[in-house]
Amino acid sequence: MHAWPASEVPALPGKGRDLRIHDTATGGRITLDPGPVARIYVCGITPYDATHMGHAATYNAFDLVQRVWLDTKRQVHYVQNVTDVDDPLLERAVRDGQDWTELAERETALFREDMTALRMLPPKHYIGAVEAIPGIVPLVERLRDAGAAYELDGDVYFSVETDPHFGGVSNLDAEAMRLLSAERGGDPERPGKKNPLDPMLWMAAREGEPSWDGASLGPGRPGWHIECVAIALDHLGMGFDVQGGGSDLAFPHHEMGASHAQVLTGEYPFAQAYVHAGMVALDGEKMSKSRGNLVFVSKLRHDGVDPAAIRLALLSHHYRSDWEWTDQVLADAVERLGRWRAAVSRPDGLPAEALVEEVREALADDLDAPAALAAVDRWAERQNAEGGTDEGAPGLVSRTVDALLGVAL
């Protein structure tokens, strides 16, 4: 599966700062110190409705991570998956009378268009669940053969009790996990499971649903968590720098995935940091496909909204915060974009070297994009009111906003 084209990232004078970021597993801020190549895995979409502002906010957060790392003169090895076969996708296809593969392809293509328009840097590897199945089957077999998985009516489940570190990502108690498991795709009430929290690794073929050759597992399709584990281990290996996604993935998805990988390899941890973006709401409720309260990037684009304004709207909220999308949020972003473009359109301006360092410091401090925006606001306000004589300043500001914030002025 191919990703989307990369926009050029301008080089800035000097060097950026190492990223200090909130780690869900430890509950505190840690300083990431990758090697020459920083490794990041971000969980992708299930393509039955793409791309709403909740998606966009999440991918914007991890785009900032990449940009901070690139500014430190590191390379970035970014991997993202597409869950292109799963219950929600199949259910939507049945509801709409569509072929599930056509639905997945169409929505994935739309997601690529939205990411391109928003200037999100693409992953080096963009992998669909279906194409990963040949690598998933052997992992499930290894877990089963090691006694870390068991069969139940043809399905194969992972035993969470085989990982001594289980629970260390989300740090939730058993009852909270059980409730979230039921809410987020698990089946804690299924009779016969060793532990209600045990997640499915391989679902035996169901009538009327797609299935693949599972070798000794029999025909079927993979569970959700093992999909990302197989892709991450194949392309990044254990101990990569950041596992990222929305806050609703901390449990069960990232918790289960970490346990799968740790039992498979005997190594710990799966990722050095677990980083989670907040949820975006509309009309007082979290945006979700099940509720249908969605604002789509493609709809805004088709209505003539500048993608740079959409990106500024996302950047105006700290990535870890839960916030609400409103018409005013977008109007403020459009107005800000206009002020910034007016400021850099002058042939000369106020010195901007200090601004570059302010933006770098804000983003290195747990991706504090609102603080970065405020720094640019202060320069733009003075520039529009007073002007200056530094001929290189407007261009330096444009390159800084592009390189670090992904906004083209």
From TrEMBL:
Enzyme Commission number(s) of this protein: 6.3.1.13
Cofactor binding, note field: Binds 1 zinc ion per subunit.
Pfam families cross-referenced by the UniProt entry: tRNA-synt_1e
Motif window: 'KMSKS' region: 286-290
A cellular component annotation (GO) from this entry: cytosol
EC class name: ligase
Domain tRNA synthetases class I catalytic: start-end pairs: 39-334
Residue sites binding Zn(2+) per the record: C43, C228, H253
Binding sites annotated in the UniProt record for L-cysteinyl-5'-AMP: C43, G44, I45, T46, T58, N81, V82, T83, W224, G246, S247, D248, V280
MF-aspect GO terms: ATP binding; cysteine-glucosaminylinositol ligase activity; cysteine-tRNA ligase activity; zinc ion binding
Family indicated by similarity: Belongs to the class-I aminoacyl-tRNA synthetase family. MshC subfamily.
Subunit annotation: Monomer.
HAMAP family reported for this sequence: MshC
Protein name per UniProt: L-cysteine:1D-myo-inositol 2-amino-2-deoxy-alpha-D-glucopyranoside ligase
Protein's organism: Streptomyces atratus
Taxon lineage: Bacteria, Bacillati, Actinomycetota, Actinomycetes, Kitasatosporales
